[in-house]
Amino acid sequence: MMDMDKRILQIMDILKKEFPNFQTLLNYKNDFELSACVALSAQTTDASVNKATPELFRRWPTPAALAAARQSEVEEVIHSLGFFRQKAKNLIAASRMLVEKYGGKVPWEMDELTALPGIGRKSANVIRGHLWNLPGIIVDTHFGRVCRRLELTAQTDPVKVEMELMRLIPEERQHEFSMTANFHGRKYCMSRKPNCADCPLAELCPSRIHRTSKKPI
Ligand code: SF4
User: Fold this and answer.
1) How many domains does the chain have?
2) Which of 39, 57, 195, 210 lies 20 to 30 A from 146 at CA?
3) Which long-range contacts (CB under 8 A, 24 or more apart) does 11-14 make?
4) 180-214 tens-digit pLDDT
5) ipTM value for the complex
6) Residue with the nearest Cα to atom 8 of ligand 1?
């Protein structure tokens, strides 16, 4: 097989061509809305979040408004999303922090973002990448699976996957690769039945080559 750097470049180029519009599927209008959407998207789909957020942002359009909201009312609005009590609590607490510490703006430092209730490293990287195009690898279940099947990493721990891929992917393409590999995992490289026959990365994928003798990871 060709050397790793060349293979990664080819993988990145193919994915970028396949998914030229690699924006998040979450609907948002500003930094506050994106951070809230990302926090709400844990353990649910982006489509479900998009159904709940118009009413959420209509009633509480700013961090200051959400910071002053009654938790029970926020719970009612995001009830369909699962873990709604914890999410409502986190949204209100994070909004308070945004108001008290950052003048109502979303901070860009990783440490500051991950100190916000409901925001972990994955969410912070989504926010940093989309709002400021800052480098970072966004590891979710789709991304991790695709990278393991492509043998870009053998790690299963999300933070270890993130660190390994940060070393492999040039900084200026980390956000792009995070998003396009994620979309690839949803469209072709599904967990149970990857569509290797139609996969644009098949020629570069060790899991595809060995597929007759072993199942994809
Ligand atoms: S060839 Fe199959 S296992 Fe490899 S990336 Fe494509 S869909 Fe996934």
Assistant:
1) 2
2) 39
3) 11/150, 11/152, 11/201, 11/204, 12/169, 12/173, 12/176, 12/177, 12/180, 14/200, 14/201, 14/204
4) 999 999 999 999 999 999 999 999 999 985 554 45
5) 0.99
6) 189
How many angstroms is it from 28 CA to the middle of ligand 1? 31
pLDDT tens digits, one per residue of 120-141: 999 999 999 999 999 999 999 9
Q: Assess whether 151 and 181 both reside in one domain.
A: yes
Q: How many CB atoms lie within 10 A of CB 39?
A: 20
Report CA-CA distances (Å) from 145 to 116, 128, 169, 177, 195. Answer: 28, 23, 17, 14, 14
Query: Which residues belong to the active site?
Result: 122, 140
Question: What range does the domain containing 171 cover?
Answer: 4-22+137-209
Same domain, 14 and 105: no
